[in-house]
Amino acid sequence: MVTARKDEVFEADNIESKWNAMKEVWQNATEQVCGWTKGPPRHSETWWWNDEIAKVIEEKRRCYKIRHKTKTASDRNKYKEARQNAMRSVALAQEKRRQKLVNELESTTVKKNVCRVATHMAKSMQDIVGVNCAKDANGKMLVENDEVKEEWRKYMEKKTAEWEEHVG
């Protein structure tokens, strides 16, 4: 790819055109080999999205467009009300979905979903430093930071003791 188009670089008249030709050759070769990604999703956290939320958000957008065009106080108040309603609805939907996930975790019939839920929790908590959850010796899921830290401390002490016994 690059060697087939090297003549384009050598035929350029000045440094600037040589650079541009070389850059284009490299970019085309990279694109052919690696391809392109779509980039990060605009709204990555949509696990709580439903038709009701979509309607509320669409109403908020509609009110914003009207407010933006008219710039009247009444339209501004309608938009503020729609925005507050949207924020409340989203928060409520998120809380309902979280509660449903917690109930699924506590249910014995949904053991297969534990890995999926744990993966989702790990992705949603990526920016937060620390451990999200762990299981204790009895298999109980721990989500409180203090409990998780204590369980990790016990685990590390046990592994250290095993290692020292193995080495020493």
Helix content: 55-70%
Rg result: 28 Å
Would you report the number of β strands?
2
Determine the mean pLDDT.
Answer: 80
Global morphology:
flat
Sequence stretches where pLDDT stays below 50 over 5 or more residues: none
Helix and strand composition category: mainly alpha
Q: Count the DSSP helices.
A: 6
> What order do the helices and strands follow?
HHHHHEEH
Largest sheet: 2 strands, antiparallel
Structure description:
The structure is a single chain. The chain is mainly alpha-helical and 168 residues long. It has 3 domains: 3-34, no CATH class; 46-129; 133-168. Helix content is 67%, strand content 2%. The chain has 6 helices and 2 strands. It has helices at 6-10, 15-34, 51-70, 73-106, 114-124, 145-167, and strands spanning 134-135, 141-142. The chain has a two-stranded antiparallel ribbon. Helix 3 runs antiparallel to helix 4. The longest helix has 34 residues, at 73-106. The radius of gyration is 28 Å and the shape is flat. The protein starts with 5 loop residues before the first helix and ends with a helix. The model has no long low-confidence stretch (mean pLDDT 80).
How is this fold's topology laid out?
Layout: H1 6-10, H2 15-34, H3 51-70, H4 73-106, H5 114-124, E1 134-135, E2 141-142, H6 145-167
Antiparallel strand pairs: 1-2
Helix pairs in contact: 3-4
